[in-house]
Specification:
The complex is a heterodimer of chains A (about 280) and B (about 750). With about 280 residues, chain A is mostly helical. Helix content of chain A is about 70%, strand content about 0%. Chain A contains 13 helices and no strands. Chain B is mainly alpha-helical and about 750 residues long. Chain B folds into 2 domains: about 525 residues, Up-down Bundle (Cytochrome C Oxidase, Chain A); about 150 residues, Up-down Bundle (Four Helix Bundle (Hemerythrin (Met), subunit A)). Chain B has 23 helices and no strands. In chain B, helix 18 runs parallel beside helix 23. The longest helix of chain B is centred in the N-terminal third of the chain and has 35 residues. Chain B is globular, with a radius of gyration of 27 Å. The chains are: A mainly alpha (about 280), B mainly alpha (about 750).
């Protein structure tokens, strides 16, 4: 099998994934009376990346062949899809029920940045404990649980930065500390994975060649298990941090764009598209 | 976030306005201006020493097969030149300038912690003397400023030079970190009313960001140096491959510090240029927000590019790929800055004073250095030229053509403020042209020498066609550059006595330091002008055409902290990096099997777990103690404090017993890498617990003496925060060392 043939044939039209994508678009459309504006672009991007993550050859490779492909999925689900979906939400006034009503506990959970931080960074560490990492590859139900939990933890993590209720967002300084420390967290994990002589996910060490693509991966692409793990570690280390840094730059753009008093909410609803103005 | 701490003392007129005189008053001073001047004078001395060393190197290299210096003398001198210039000249010069200028530019009376400030300064001559004392004690270090292992290990570096190097760098590192913590606290807590973060002068902004770089990067070096020191004195093998250590780990640790260090030496220089260029172009800076944000981008990215110093080590394709990409990426924010400075000059009414000339030369030379820097991001090119003079040319274009030229620009710009007299423009022009011609002659040809294959760090070279001539040109240029420094020294000497009186604001500049007299009085300001924009003095001089108000009418933003809190938090950040390095070293060395004692055979997780609970309980008691103090329940506070100390002591005793047990089995710190990393990590943590207990004992003594009844809760809170930190670190250490065994 050549690389081209593989990338054409290895799509996985998972009905669950297609249903979720369709349903999300329908719900979003219905809530916005099917008027699609600038913000819908974020949603579309989020959905497309979600689809690519779980239906494209990346998923096939992650399924027992390549640790690095698994890591790519991990990053996309945790760090890319949730913020894109959150950005597509219109900025809403703070709902009353969350302040005093029966949703108060949820409010506390969502607004305590330490909880969110541990969900976001802990999610990364947790699923790379060798036991869980292997289990997620072998058991399909744990596999699905992993996807769902990554998405949820991703939403929880990005909530204090770009959540829809601007009152709950972190201030610039706190936001930078929040994101930078998350970068340190995943850098440390990335460094450990990159330099560890031990296989993090031993299942990837001896892949079961169900599709007959192992020669393609190991000989043509040159991805031996050792290099594969190094690549996976580096993905966690470098690009993951760059995503957090993008968040920091977004915070800066929002901050410089704010005109009035610090307390007042910025009038533009998409923080990340606000332009900062020079002289 | 209290507002009270922000009220600057600048508005008060102190009773004793006249400054004390005499030599002792300089030694005992805690005035940031005097400390700043002391910094600058000290670095000037070291600059001359480092410069003479550079000239000695150039004499040796002037001709092929030269015997002016012996190989060993050459190694010593080039090591001392690098170490001196980086740790004793560039860093402290920039810190000294920040020390003098930051409080003035933010309208403050002094730094947040004046006595800490004096300490940071006095550590500089202390470290400098210690480094040079090695000359009397058997020879200077001769292993390069990077001290690559295993060359720096005992078998290969037999004199005590490297020991002096490690101790001196440790002291200098502590001084730089202390100064940076002070600068962070100052900028966060001492700003005049109206000076919101968004209105900060760019120099202050860049010093602020730079201080974070220092507190995050220096501990990586300190941790590595501590390990090297332990290797040399306790015969351990952190970095000795012959005994299972890793020489590459030294490189990782060193460059994890070393690359941010490049920006530590550049960011404040960018700040100087961002002040000088607008004033002499008579235009506000183009794209303030972009210059400010790109500084943050540089700072963040600088932590993710260090491996490009190690392409030649052979890290494997995936590593090379990622780090080549990030290294190219960091050129973008730097490019944004160059663009902003150029755009500021474009269409401006430029006044070509000496200061501006140096700034323009900076812009050109720094761009050349930056462009040659990008070529190193291309891995094959890096392999080809990383060991040659091409690299020497590159980093001298960045550090001399860049940073030093910016410092000269700043010196000509702020000298009138510091002394009350202007430097001579006539001598200044001479100084500038000699420097710019000398510098480019000395270093531009080195690009060619490097591409022709001339190896750096080697005391001589063979007589190949063209090499002798180009090296001679380089040496002549270096001497012209050296002569230009003599002109500068003469200019300073003459102008101090006969210079034109400066007046308050000789350049019609716009930032706050020009609002006071030259030199400023001990208390800095009689009155701070109102601040509504980034150019308060422009608004004052042009009430008919003021700058637009920046960031609304609010006089304060959310960036006002209590100064003890700002100080302790910055301190804890730098401590966490130190521990992170030790933990990574532990994980690295204990991830594969080795001979001798192992964690499983030596450690008892259950027993240590009990002591761990004691330590965690002490976090609870100190938190409760703080609550009781807030509620003014003083006796409960005192008893909870005592309980905390007891719990902490129990933990230390527990750890001591564990050590004794291990010693009884005949295991010492140098038994194997498990023992080495275990004792290093837990030992440093234990040391921190001891320091915490001592701090708590002091608090307790004060509490029983009746202190804290009138408030001063912040002291208790700060120590409490430190104690929580020590506990949190233990939680991580305990998981890494002990809990892993139960899995």
């Amino acid at each position: 099998m050549t690389t081209g043939q593989f990338f054409i044939s290895a799509w996985n039209w998972n009905p669950w994934v297609i249903t979720i994508c369709g349903a999300t678009i329908l719900i979003y459309g219905a809530r916005n009376h099917f008027r699609f504006g600038q913000k819908s672009g974020w949603l579309l991007a989020g959905i497309i990346i979600f689809f690519i993550t779980l239906a494209s050859p990346i998923d096939t490779l992650a399924d027992g062949y390549l640790f690095s492909a698994h890591m790519l999925q991990h990053l996309l689900l945790l760090l890319i899809v949730p913020p894109l979906i959150l950005l597509s939400r219109p900025s809403a006034p703070f709902p009353d029920g969350f302040q005093n009503g029966r949703w108060k506990w949820l409010n506390w959970m969502l607004r305590h940045p330490l909880v969110n931080w541990f969900l976001g960074v802990g999610g990364m560490w947790l699923w790379h404990a060798p036991m869980l990492c292997n289990a997620a590859v072998t058991n399909p139900w744990i596999h699905r649980l992993q996807y769902v939990s990554l998405l949820l933890m991703g939403f929880a993590f990005w909530w204090p930065i770009i959540g829809p209720w601007s009152r709950q967002r972190l201030s610039l300084l706190a936001g930078i500390i929040y994101l930078f420390s998350a970068c340190v967290g995943c850098t440390v994990l990335g460094i450990i994975i990159t330099f560890s002589p031990v296989e993090v996910c031993s299942i990837y060490l001896h892949p079961v060649d169900r599709l007959g693509i192992l020669p393609l991966i190991q000989n043509q692409w040159g991805l031996t298990p050792a290099k594969d793990q190094q690549l996976g570690g580096l993905l966690m280390w470098v690009p993951a941090c760059l995503i957090y840094f993008c968040g920091i730059f977004g915070l800066f753009a929002r901050w410089h764009g704010e005109t009035g008093n610090e307390i007042s909410v910025s009038k533009s609803s998409t923080p990340f598209t606000e332009k900062s103005h020079g002289h | 976030m209290s507002e009270t701490a922000s009220a600057p003392a600048a508005m008060e007129t102190p009773a004793a306005a006249s400054a004390p005189r005499g030599l002792f008053s300089w030694i005992a001073t805690v005035d940031h201006k005097r400390i700043g001047i002391l910094y600058l004078l000290t670095t000037l001395v070291f600059f001359v020493i480092g410069g003479v060393e550079a000239l000695l190197i150039r004499i040796q290299l002037a001709r092929p097969n030269n015997t002016f210096l012996s190989p060993d003398a050459f190694d010593q001198i080039f090591t001392m030149h690098g170490t001196t210039m980086i740790f004793l000249v560039v860093m402290p010069t920039l810190i000294g300038l920040a020390n003098y200028l930051v409080p003035l530019m933010i309208g403050a009376r002094d730094m947040a912690f004046p006595r800490l400030n004096a300490l940071s300064f006095w550590l500089l001559p202390c470290g400098g003397l210690l480094l040079h004392f090695s000359l009397l004690a058997g020879g200077a270090p001769a292993v390069g400023w990077f001290s690559y292992a295993p060359l720096s290990e005992t078998p290969y570096a037999t004199t005590s030079g490297v020991d002096y190097w490690t101790l001196s760098l440790l002291i200098l590192g502590v001084g730089s970190v202390a100064a940076s913590i002070n600068l962070i606290a100052t900028i966060l807590t001492q700003r005049a009313p109206g000076l919101t973060i968004r209105r900060l002068p760019l120099f202050v902004w860049m010093v602020f960001i730079n201080s974070f770089l220092v507190i995050l990067a220096l501990p990586a070096l300190n941790a590595a140096i501590v390990m090297l020191f332990i290797d040399r004195h306790l015969s351990t093998h952190f970095f000795a491959p012959a005994h299972g250590g890793s020489a590459v780990l030294w490189q990782h640790f060193f460059w994890a510090f070393g690359h941010p260090e490049v920006y530590i030496m550049a960011l404040p220089a960018f700040g100087i240029i961002s002040e000088v260029v607008p004033v002499f172009a008579r235009r506000p800076i183009f794209g303030y927000e972009f210059v400010a944000a790109s500084t943050v981008a540089i700072a963040l990215l600088s932590f993710g590019v260090w491996a490009h110093h190690m392409f030649a080590v052979g890290l494997g394709h995936p590593m090379d790929l990622f780090f080549a990409a990030t290294s190219m990426m960091i050129a973008v924010p730097t490019g944004i800055k160059v663009f902003a400075w150029s755009a500021t000059m474009w269409g401006g009414a430029i006044r070509l004073t000496t200061s501006m000339l140096f700034a323009v030369a900076f812009l050109i030379q720094f761009t050349i250095g930056g462009l040659s820097g990008i070529t190193f991001a291309v891995v094959p090119i890096d392999w080809q030229v990383t060991g040659t003079y091409y690299l020497v040319a590159h980093f001298h274009y960045v550090l001399f053509g860049g940073t030093f030229f910016a410092v000269f620009a700043g010196l000509y710009y702020w000298f009138p403020k510091i002394t009350g007299r202007r430097l001579s423009e006539r001598l200044g022009q001479l100084n500038f042209w000699m420097a710019v011609i000398g510098f480019n002659t000395a270093f531009f040809v080195q690009h060619f020498l490097g591409l022709m294959g001339m190896a750096r760090r080697i005391y001589t070279y063979p007589d190949l066609p063209g090499w002798g001539l180009l090296n001679m040109i380089s040496t002549l240029g270096a001497f012209l550059l050296g002569a230009s420094v003599l002109v500068l020294l003469w200019n300073i000497f003459v102008s101090l006595r006969h210079g034109k009186p400066a007046g308050d604001n000789p350049w019609q500049a716009w930032t706050l330091e020009w609002a006071t007299t030259s030199p400023p009085p001990a208390h800095n300001f009689d009155r701070v002008p109102p601040i509504r924009s980034r150019r308060p003095l422009w608004d004052l001089a042009h009430p008919e055409n003021p700058d637009p108000i920046v960031g609304g009418a609010a006089a304060q933003d959310g960036f006002i902290l209590e100064k003890n809190r700002a100080g302790i938090v910055s301190f804890l950040i730098t401590e966490s990096v130190f521990f992170l390095m030790l933990i990574l070293a532990y994980l690295y060395y204990n991830s594969h099997a080795m001979n001798g004692p192992t964690p499983t055979s030596m450690l008892n997780p259950q027993r240590t777990g009990i002591y761990t609970l004691c330590l965690l309980a002490s976090s609870l008691t100190i938190w409760l103690a703080g609550k009781k103090l807030e509620a003014k329940k003083h006796s409960a506070f005192r008893w909870l404090l005592t309980l905390t100390i007891l719990l902490g002591t129990v933990f230390i005793i527990g750890q001591g017993r564990e050590y004794l047990r291990i010693f009884h089995e005949g295991v010492m710190v140098n038994s194997n890498l498990f023992a080495t990393t275990f004792f290093t990590l837990t030992g440093f943590h234990g040391l921190h617990v001891c320091v915490g207990v001592i701090a708590l004992l002091i608090l307790m003594a004060l509490a029983f003496a009746g202190d804290f009844k009138q408030g001063r809760i912040e002291a208790v809170k700060s120590i409490g925060l430190y104690w929580h930190f020590v506990d949190a670190v233990w939680l991580v250490v305990f998981s890494v060392i002990y809990l892993r065994l139960l899995l």
